[in-house]
Amino acid sequence: MKNALLAKRYAKALFAVGKDENALDEYATTLSEFATLLVDNPELDDALSNPIYPADAREAIMAEVVKAAGVSTIMGNFLNLIVQKRRADVLGDIAEMFQILVDEENNTAQGNVVSAAELSADMQAKVQETLEKITGKQVTLTTQVDESIIGGMIAKVGDLVLDGSIKTQLEQLKESIKGSE
């Protein structure tokens, strides 16, 4: 929970600056890319977040990564600050929280649909339209295939979860049968 609170503080601060600079989307993209970079490169993540390494070495590494990425000065300063304050391990959480703030600002939401088989473009459009009606927001939809749900689909938008999978229905039926014994 401590990481969520820290992430929210940093995300709100960057959000305020990004709003003033009219660069929210740019900052969201940069944060997401840096968070992915750290996940994909555990050695870099370790070099930036492990307190065993001297602070000046961690800061020099981030400065080089920022320079190579060619990000804006403000974003570069923010990323360097994250390393200086020994918060590189929270960068993924900051990126998520920042995206939530940007989505709220734009009245959009990130949605995810898990289905047993690949959804057709028509079905994706219908699901997206339904989720937009339910949430009252424009939904950016991603899809996943998970054959273990047997059939149906599970749709998630923020805290809203609509589970119409066969697997869940079978589990509920099983529990119902157990409860009546």
Describe, in plain words, how this protein is organized in 3D.
This protein is an alpha+beta fold. It folds into 2 domains: about 1-105, Orthogonal Bundle (Peroxidase, domain 1); about 110-180, Glutaredoxin. It contains 8 helices and 4 strands; from the N terminus they run H-H-H-H-H-H-E-H-E-E-E-H. A 4-stranded mixed sheet has the order 2-1-3-4. The radius of gyration is 21 Å and the shape is elongated. The two termini are about 40 Å apart. The mean pLDDT is about 95.
Keywords:
single chain, 181 residues, alpha+beta, Peroxidase, domain 1, Glutaredoxin, 2 domains, 4-stranded mixed β-sheet, 14% strand, elongated
What is this structure, in a nutshell?
The chain is of the alpha+beta class and 181 residues long.
Helicity level? 55-70%
**DSSP helical segment count:** 8
What is the helix/strand order?
HHHHHHEHEEEH
| Cα gyration radius (Å) | 21 Å
How many angstroms does the end-to-end distance come to? 40 Å
What is the count of β-strands?
A: 4
CATH superfamily of the largest domain: N-terminal domain of the delta subunit of the F1F0-ATP synthase
What is the count of distinct domains?
2
Top-tier CATH class of the largest domain: Mainly Alpha
Please mark out the parts with pLDDT under 50 across 5 or more consecutive residues, or reply none. Answer: none
CATH fold naming of the largest domain: Peroxidase, domain 1
Category by helix and strand content:
alpha+beta
Strand content: 5-15%
Mean pLDDT: 94
Assign an overall shape.
elongated
User: Largest beta sheet: what is the strand line-up?
Assistant: 2-1-3-4
Largest sheet: 4 strands, mixed
The CATH level-2 architecture of the largest domain is identified as Orthogonal Bundle
